[in-house]
Write a structure and sequence with these properties.
164 residues; alpha+beta; five-stranded antiparallel sheet; three-stranded antiparallel sheet; 8 strands; 32% helix; 37% strand
């Protein structure tokens, strides 16, 4: 594997949830003339529905992430919107260690007017990538699932850690 992509998003929380709801509302609005009589013209109804769907699609597809190019020894943090990733590539120094730490943290869902605002305690696995001789990590990845975190740790150790 020469390339690794880590998306930092949750499809049913925060802005992604709002995006899904607005997108669905736009589709329902466009289809509503088939089922209900309306005072608005057909073109107005379709334009409003299409606009809402586009806004919803924008929020559904906006997320952050990190990419690592193992063969090119570089990485980037990016912002993605509608599938286009924006971010500057940085070269990776020689990596001498990769560590995986597990922690529990309180997470509060974003108030969105749809679901109740709740605080829950979740387990998060954080993968740190350290350059040779550095005490501060070059970057880190936050991963929710333990099995996936272990797989990524093994991948990074095999692809990045310099053998002396």
């Amino acid at each position: 594997m020469a390339f690794f992509n880590h998306k930092e998003r949750e499809l049913f929380h925060g802005r992604h949830l709002i995006g899904t709801i607005v997108f669905a509302a736009g589709i329902i609005n466009m289809l509503s003339p088939l089922f209900w009589a309306s005072k608005n013209s057909l073109s107005t109804t379709i334009l409003i529905g299409a606009g809402a769907s586009m806004v919803g699609l924008f929020f559904m597809t906006a997320y952050d992430g990190k990419q690592v190019d193992f063969s090119g020894k570089r990485f980037r943090e990016y912002h993605a919107i509608l599938g286009f990733k924006i971010g500057e590539w940085k070269s990776l120094p020689a990596i001498d260690r990769v560590e995986l730490l597990s922690t529990e943290e309180d997470v509060m869902n974003e108030p969105n007017g749809v679901s109740p605002t709740l605080t829950t305690r979740i387990k998060v696995h954080i993968l740190y990538v350290f350059g040779k001789g550095n005490t501060n990590p070059e970057f880190n990845l936050r991963i929710r699932k333990e099995k996936k975190a272990q797989e990524i740790l093994d991948l990074f150790k095999s692809e990045l850690v310099a053998v002396d």
